[in-house]
Design goal:
- The structure is a single chain.
- By secondary structure, the protein is mainly beta.
- It has 1 helix and 5 strands, in the order ββαβββ.
- Helix content is 14%, strand content 38%.
- The strands form 2 sheets. A 3-stranded antiparallel beta sheet has the order 3-4-5, with no helix packed on it.
């Protein structure tokens, strides 16, 4: 399927770059990966938006939360807007 995302500032069609930050521990490794993306010009002054999505699991409550952040650079001012979305859900266990 095609993923199109609209914000109050712009509409983003499919395309762009994808970088998997899977299994990075601790958080300093994630920061190092983002810095590497900047150094290799994946993220630069012409970058309009960066989407960061990940899931979290709470073992004690058997619940998940899907987290999505949009970092959107405004072309007129260069300011960066950050939008966050958190969607909690729980998987029901089936008993036989």
């Amino acid at each position: 399927g095609t993923l199109i995302y609209s914000s109050t500032e712009a509409t983003y069609m499919t395309g762009g770059y994808f970088h998997d930050l899977r299994n990075l521990q601790p958080i300093s490794q994630t920061k190092d990966e983002v810095k590497c993306l900047q150094e290799n010009h994946w993220i630069d002054r012409w970058t309009r938006a960066v989407f960061l999505t990940f899931g979290l699991y709470n073992r004690n409550t058997n619940s998940f939360v899907y987290c999505s952040f949009l970092l959107e650079q405004l072309p007129q001012t260069g300011h960066v807007l950050v939008r966050a979305s958190f969607q909690p859900f729980r998987l029901n266990q089936l008993y036989t």
